[in-house]
Amino acid sequence: MKGLKIGIVAISVFSVASVIAQNGGQTENQRGEKVFAKMDTDSDGAISKAEFEAFKEGKTNKNGEPVDGAKRFEKLDANSDGKITEAEFKEAQENKPQRAEGPKDGSKMFEKMDSDKNNLVDFSEFKAFHENSEHQKENSDLDRRFKKLDVNNDGNIDKAEMAEVAEKRQENEGQNQQAK
Prior knowledge:
Strand order of the largest sheet: 1-2
Distance between the termini: 34 Å
Number of helices: 9
Number of domains: 2
CATH superfamily of the largest domain: EF-hand
Radius of gyration: 18 Å
CATH class of the largest domain: Mainly Alpha
Helix content: 55-70%
Shape: elongated
CATH topology of the largest domain: Recoverin, domain 1
Number of strands: 4
């Protein structure tokens, strides 16, 4: 029973650490500014519906379903003027619902990445998962993140490696909190 609890805690920690890693250590505000700039392809300080839909095209949500860019645009365009200003974008980011507290399993994400169902995630699966997700990463960032998760450097990630990395991140996070 104690082993099961430790396993659950380790997987939960991985989930939190994964979010931190995905954000590259950036604050939500910094990350939001970066995403806004990527969407604002003409750099006019606002995101048009066409820019927004182009950015969301081919992306899926965490359940693997296609993202409805038009519907999301309507929600973000608070004053319905046909564009999303940086202020509207920031407000939406600040009002974004927080994830539920409590243990996170992490196995769903692993299962989605493990497309050939061999209980290992190789780089091509890792890359495909991230290319099809809503939060695309640059290939260099994917390489770095994959190498961090592939603890034994065998070219694959297994659930134990993910848990190990998460545990180390949690320890480091705890030390950083104590230092403050």
